[in-house]
Design brief:
286 residues, alpha/beta, three-stranded parallel β-sheet, 11 strands, globular
Length: 286
């Protein structure tokens, strides 16, 4: 039976690290601050926002929330959003900026993300940070692929020379994760909806990471004995949150596995806050 890569305990450890770093920044005269921009009234965004506020308070960071009215005039809403980002970019008291997604229909997501100061872009979604991932430069990177990588590294999994199979090529997780993994020298294979006989490919993996959002996608006979399995594909269902992995089946064959819930998703908020501090180091120095 597989050992569990416990996201909850890792999140607690990272929180402790953040608290110590926030204390150091305060001693230098800076109070780390996250500015969250909420445009519209998406219920999921509001729920995630409340969670971010709680974690910010827990680690001693300030969380300023800027709510923009869900105007029918999306041209005006977009202009207001871009003007606010420009102001926050210039505000040295703001350590990081997070634009909650999804944006209201009619607002140009690409234009909004491109307006962010890359060193305040804690979601790692701006074009500059995307290019830094591809080029091997340092930058602020998206929280979910970072969480997949953190769980492996903190779980003691050595990636150099291993074969990692990533299932899912989405813009949010799969694509950036491939290039983030390559920094640690594994061989990486990426699978997608056109991959023939998915199990034949996933059985080759020393590490298998799923990021599709299709419950029951990865079954026990699709992984080799002793593989490490990371499930980043969460889907709300009537039975609760479910991952891509059929947990009981895969856990019988894997050496390590992440649960859903309690796995990848538990690290994302603390890693967003880690990006706030990383951006501050980039702007102000160590």
């Amino acid at each position: 039976m597989a050992g569990i890569l416990d996201g909850k305990s890792m999140a607690l450890t990272i929180k402790d690290e953040l608290r110590r770093e926030v204390v150091d920044w305060r001693a230098r005269g800076y109070t780390p601050k996250l500015a969250v921009l909420l445009a519209g009234a998406d219920p999921a965004s509001q729920a995630y926002l409340a969670a971010k506020q709680r974690v910010c308070q827990d680690v001693g960071m300030v969380c300023d929330v800027h709510v923009l009215a869900d105007l029918k005039d999306t041209v005006a809403l977009q202009a207001d959003l871009l003007a606010l980002i420009e102001r926050l970019n210039a505000d040295e008291a703001v350590g990081g900026i997070l634009v909650e997604m999804p944006l209201p229909a009619g607002v140009d997501k690409g234009l909004v993300l491109a307006a962010l100061d890359p060193d305040k872009d804690v979601d790692g979604m701006s074009p500059v940070n995307r290019s830094r991932i591809l080029s091997g430069e340092d930058g602020l990177f998206p929280a979910t692929p970072m969480s997949c990588l953190e769980m492996l590294l903190r779980g003691g999994v050595r990636l150099a020379g291993k074969h990692v199979v990533v299932v899912g090529r989405g813009e949010t997780v799969g694509k950036p994760l491939v290039f983030m993994l390559l920094r640690h020298n594994p061989t990486v294979t990426i699978c997608h909806s056109h991959t023939r006989d998915l199990g034949t490919v996933t059985r080759l993996g020393d590490v298998v990471i799923t990021a599709v959002g299709r419950p029951g996608l990865l079954r026990g006979d699709m992984v080799r004995s002793g593989a490490v399995v990371v499930d980043a594909g969460t889907t709300p269902t009537d039975e609760g949150l479910r991952g891509d992995v059929v947990f009981d089946e895969v856990a019988e064959r894997a050496s390590l596995i992440t649960p859903v819930p309690g796995g990848v998703g538990t690290l994302t908020t603390v890693l967003l806050l880690q990006n706030v501090l990383k951006g501050m180091h980039r702007r102000f120095g160590s």
